[in-house]
Design goal:
463 residues, two-stranded antiparallel sheet, two-stranded parallel ribbon, 6 strands, 61% helix, 5% strand, elongated, binds arginine
């Protein structure tokens, strides 16, 4: 049987394989709420512009509300023969209200309809991310405030480099996330234009009011070019790229949490709520949430790549290729939101093991740079010479298996005769971090100030 929505000039129905490759209802049913909102805005506008009667618009609105309720209560019968969410809803509307249903599609096309639905969907997701990223930033900033002077080793090359505070380390992620937040906010501004009324591609001869539908749907304005309106998908690419970068940031923190929670590091304890046990090894506590977050960039970058490659080289304007814009995008949007929420919970519950962190901060001669700086500042040695002298002192401490701060003065003097007692003031990890007061440095006073400023700003935004 030919399609009842558009089959006028078709004598035959589609081949079974054609029906299968063509149908999108299995995934685009997710757009039902946006599709109904778009149709309601369109119907109301059509009546205001006297393109359809008020009575028809009222019937359409009522019917669409009923369909929404059917879908939400699981009573709606989605049909693959009706291809997609748009035709499924319109067909049901016809069953419910009869003839007026046929007037809804005046002055529009599925091309501007789907472009509108998809923008609304992506916009809603972005709004969730904007608040979810801020939730995570706040959790991190609060943990940083509580740990502004908790010492830990700072790493480069994952080798102990210089001592830092745990708070400083956490605030590095707050900075990354603040840029993710900016990317989402920025993408939202460009996304928030209404394609509705672009019709199939060329606009329409009916006296529609695109500003009215844009306003009704919370868009800032209508898109300015109907061909661009139906064929642009860069709004989704932009959001997916912001998701991908954000997921990469989350994966770095996730990886650190995995490392920190090993029995070798023991820097943090994760709560029962975000770990799992092993079915065979009773001693284990596995950081599954962190591992899954670490894995997410694969599928999220995959979604970006899928959409980018699908769009590449597509001629103007709409093409059915674009139906393939949705599945991976939905998946990526769902997964970044899940990852943000899981990370927020994990960070909130995470307990630092201050003794283990301090012990690690003390190992690896992490104050060697402080010794070199003392030689430069007190003995006026050129830094390169100081580096050399320090290297020899570190070698001595290593031989004797003691911390730099426990190496006898006589040993240091055997390397350089002018070193005096004063050097011990800079060799402890506490002194080392306290001295790093340069802007952006790890001194506890700096970290406390930064953490408080972030907490204040983030809490302020929520009110
Ligand atoms: N299901 C289609 C999509 O997602 C809707 C638009 C169909 N437009 C068309 N001219 N066949 O892209």
């Amino acid at each position: 049987m030919a399609n009842k929505m558009w089959g006028g000039r078709f004598a035959q129905g589609p081949d079974a394989i054609m029906a299968k490759i063509n149908a999108s209802i299995d995934f685009d049913k997710k757009l039902y709420a946006q599709d109904i909102a778009g149709s309601k805005a369109h119907a109301v506008m059509l009546a205001r512009q006297k393109i359809i009667s008020r009575a028809d618009a009222a019937a359409i609105t009522k019917g669409l509300d009923a369909i929404k309720a059917e879908i939400e209560s699981g009573k709606f019968n989605f049909s693959a023969e009706l291809e997609d969410i748009h035709l499924n809803i319109e067909s049901r509307l016809k069953e419910l209200i009869g003839e007026p249903a046929g007037r809804l599609h005046t002055a529009r096309s599925r091309n501007d309809q789907v472009a509108t639905d998809f923008r609304l969907y992506v916009r809603e997701a972005v709004d969730h991310f904007i608040s979810a990223v801020q939730d995570l930033m706040l959790a991190l900033a609060e943990k940083a405030e509580a740990n502004a002077s908790t010492l830990m080793p700072g790493f480069t090359h994952l080798q102990s480099a210089q001592p830092v505070t745990f708070g400083h380390h956490l605030l590095a992620y707050v900075e990354m996330l603040s840029r993710d937040l900016g990317r989402f906010q920025d993408a939202r501004k460009r996304l928030n234009e209404s394609p509705l009324g672009s019709a199939a591609l060329a606009g329409t001869s009916y006296p529609i009011d695109r500003k009215a539908t844009a306003d009704a749907l919370g868009f800032d304005r209508p898109t300015r070019n109907s061909m661009d309106g139906v064929s642009a998908r860069d709004f989704a690419l932009e959001v997916l790229s912001a998701c991908a970068i954000c997921s990469i940031h989350l994966s770095r923190l996730a990886e650190e949490i995995v490392i920190w929670s090993t029995s070798q590091f023991r820097f943090v304890k994760l709560s029962d709520k975000f770990t799992t046990g092993s079915s065979i090894m009773p001693q284990k506590r596995n950081p599954d949430a962190a591992e899954l977050i670490r894995a997410k960039p694969g599928r999220i970058l995959g979604a970006f790549t899928a959409l980018a490659v699908m769009m590449k080289g597509l001629p103007m304007s709409y093409a059915k290729d674009m139906q393939e814009d949705k599945e991976q995008t939905f998946d990526a949007l769902e997964n970044i939101e899940l990852a943000l929420a899981a990370m927020t919970g994990m960070v909130r519950d995470l307990e630092p093991n201050k003794d283990a962190m301090l012990a690690a901060a003390n190992s690896g001669f992490s104050t060697a740079t402080d010794l070199a700086d003392w030689l430069v500042q007190t003995l006026k040695m050129p830094f390169r010479d100081a580096h050399h002298v320090t290297g020899r002192i570190v070698a001595l401490a290593e031989q004797k298996n003691v911390l730099l701060s426990d190496l006898p003065l006589a040993d240091m003097r055997s390397v350089h005769a002018k070193i005096d007692e004063g050097v011990f003031r800079v060799l402890s990890v506490q002194a080392s971090v306290a001295s790093r007061k340069s802007q952006g440095g790890t001194a506890p006073a700096n970290v406390l100030g930064e953490a408080k400023a972030w907490v204040k700003q983030l809490k302020g935004k929520r009110k």
